[in-house]
């Protein structure tokens, strides 16, 4: 039987300088999961994503994507990535929404080839999925942070990825649209079968949406089903967050996490 593990990290460690910022990480992501990656500021979450995307090389350990060692992996259109602060275009940025979405096809068709009608239809399909098709010819900089974030998801979806990685996508999305945003992610996961990996600080609400949670602080302290993660008391959480314990309070009644820094 084919192994449904699409991302496999074994004993992965990384340092930019002298100190390990990711240490001895073992992690499996299976097809169909919606995995929330949480941890305090500076705990290595974005670095772990960079390692998975091959943007930085592990000092130690091994990474497999879709059952291939990362150095042999070439099907990058299978992986969509929405980076932190993707949604920060200012109002003067000279590109329409559909132009931004079509740039997501560049890795598939090559940088200097022309976009065809078929590519435009794909971009429109992706915009329909994120419910932004009516803004196709608006200027990207005129949209709100939440709307821009949806456009970036469309850009990542246009190459039909099986795995979508999002680094803090709800930053800049106003509170009343965060629920809609999670609904969109839920649909992508359940209806389109896209595996999701989402970095977030939002540990109060991620457990209501993700199927699984990974909690890291350099190393992985918890990896399991969201239901198990919900069972943790504040004491357990503080223990898991290691030396950053004072930065965190977990309010079970309101499902909120407050960072004191
Ligand atoms: N390019 C870099 N050069 C040197 N150090 C870096 C670099 N990027 C990150 N770091 C350091 O590596 C550590 C982990 O950073 P990283 O951004 O991966 O954490 P994070 O969990 O994503 O943080 P946050 O939640 O604040 O975004 C931090 O101490 C950070 O200062």
UniProtKB/TrEMBL annotation:
Determine if NAD is one of this entry's keywords.
no
- Keyword terms: ATP-binding, Nucleotide-binding, Transport
**Where do the ABC transporter domain residues begin and end?**
7-242
Q: Would I find Nucleotide-binding among this entry's keywords?
A: yes
SUPFAM superfamilies recorded for this chain?
A: P-loop containing nucleoside triphosphate hydrolases
What InterPro entries does this protein map onto?
AAA+_ATPase, ABC_transporter-like_ATP-bd, ABC_transporter-like_CS, Metal_Ion_Import_ABC, P-loop_NTPase
Molecular function (Gene Ontology), one example: ATP binding
Transmembrane ranges, per UniProt, are none
Q: Which SMART domains match?
A: AAA (SM00382)
Pfam families reported for this sequence: ABC_tran
Question: What family does the Swiss-Prot or TrEMBL record give for this protein?
Answer: Belongs to the ABC transporter superfamily.
Instruction: Specify the protein name.
Output: Zinc transport system ATP-binding protein AdcC
What is the organism of origin for this protein? Halobacillus karajensis
